[in-house]
Amino acid sequence: MKIGVVKEIKNNENRVALTPAGVDRLVSQGHEVCVQATAGEGSGLSDDLYKKAGAKLLPEAKNVWGSCDLILKVKEPLKPEWAMMRPEQTLFTYLHLAADKALTNGVVKTKSYGFAYETLESHGTLPLLVPMSEVAGRMAIQEGAKYLEKPMGGSGILLGGVPGVRPAKVTIIGGGVVGTQAARMAAGLGADVTILDVNLDRMRYLDEVLPPNCTTLYSTPYAIRELLPETDLLVGAVLIPGAAAPKLIKRADLKLMRPGSVIVDVAVDQGGCIETVEATTHAKPTYVVDGVTHYCVANMPGAVPRTSTWALTNATLPWVEKLAKLGPVGAIEQSPELRTAVNCVKGHITYEAVAKAFGAKYVAPLDALAKKS
């Protein structure tokens, strides 16, 4: 198969979908790999490294989109890229369709095969979401601590405090990968951490593995509202696979928080779990509502590509290999895992949570293959 890697055009997105090591693996299996010039530059990967690994360098994105059967990306295609997508072409990336109707319509209309990293399920887990969730969870505390500083508009509290002075109170909504990593980082810095979830088994596990300065609490709107007046840093870490995140904190709830407190909503890719959330960029990462700083960057790991590019491609490469070997039709027919990743097929929405988000018609992937595009 002819596989293409394009340069990301999202604001300050410095990751790349395939490392030279990945190119070497795919070429050794008989595939042709085309990489857009400078695609790896943001991650410290030169064109020369890709050439040495066996990639063919193409000057512009349109050359890659126009000539390759399988396109590998990191983030969802933006509007300028929709026009370059072709029917029957395969795209493998983080799609996050349920949070954006225009994106969903734009991708579906191309009649391509859209495989999403974030919905691929294997043995009850989301293996392609985990590495970036680990990065984002840790970054949430790093960024939150920065914006709690007074010069950044924060209340001026040090996350871990010092002897004789209380530490900051960190509230984390969601005990999945993001929430767990955020809790570990915050606790390691000495903060007073509360992590909320609705899965009792998960909370029992967290209670065993997290340090003593972390408290688990069953998540209810009442429990969240009780915590907000004392919360310095709130981390939104809610995930419903492939679906829009539920709004667990309303605009009125912000009045319970102290001026200068900070919200980091890692769920922003799926629309955010806080009503006042709007996606921001690394160029302008924050805004203030009712005295509360909101950090809602939709591609947080893009700021640390020397970590996140390798973490991502370590996880995605085996599935890229399988998709390239089977092709989109074979992948849907023969691989239950890749079937969970396919969000659109030949103009049909094939992931139920995405269809539900927009009141659109859902077509099962295998049924979509049999339909005329």
Summarize the topology:
Layout: E1 2-5, H1 20-28, E2 32-36, H2 47-53, E3 56-58, H3 61-67, E4 70-72, H4 79-82, E5 90-93, H5 101-109, E6 113-116, H6 130-147, E7 169-173, H7 177-188, E8 192-197, H8 200-209, E9 214-218, H9 221-227, E10 233-236, E11 262-265, E12 286-289, E13 292-295, H10 305-334, H11 336-341, E14 342-345, E15 348-349, H12 352-358, H13 365-370
Overview of the structural elements:
This protein is α/β, with parallel strands linked by helices and 373 residues long. It folds into 2 domains: 2-126 and 305-370, NAD(P)-binding Rossmann-like Domain (Rossmann fold, 3-Layer(aba) Sandwich), CATH 3.40.50; 130-303, NAD(P)-binding Rossmann-like Domain (Rossmann fold), CATH 3.40.50.720. It has 13 helices and 15 strands. It has helices spanning 20-28, 47-53, 61-67, 79-82, 101-109, 130-147, 177-188, 200-209, 221-227, 305-334, 336-341, 352-358, 365-370, and strands at residues 2-5, 32-36, 56-58, 70-72, 90-93, 113-116, 169-173, 192-197, 214-218, 233-236, 262-265, 286-289, 292-295, 342-345, 348-349. Strands 3-2-1-4-5-6-14-15 form an 8-stranded mixed beta sheet, with helices on both faces. The longest helix is centred in the C-terminal third of the chain and has 30 residues, at 305-334. The mean pLDDT is 96.
Can you summarize this structure?
With 373 residues, the protein is α/β, with parallel strands linked by helices. 35% of the residues lie in helices and 16% in strands.
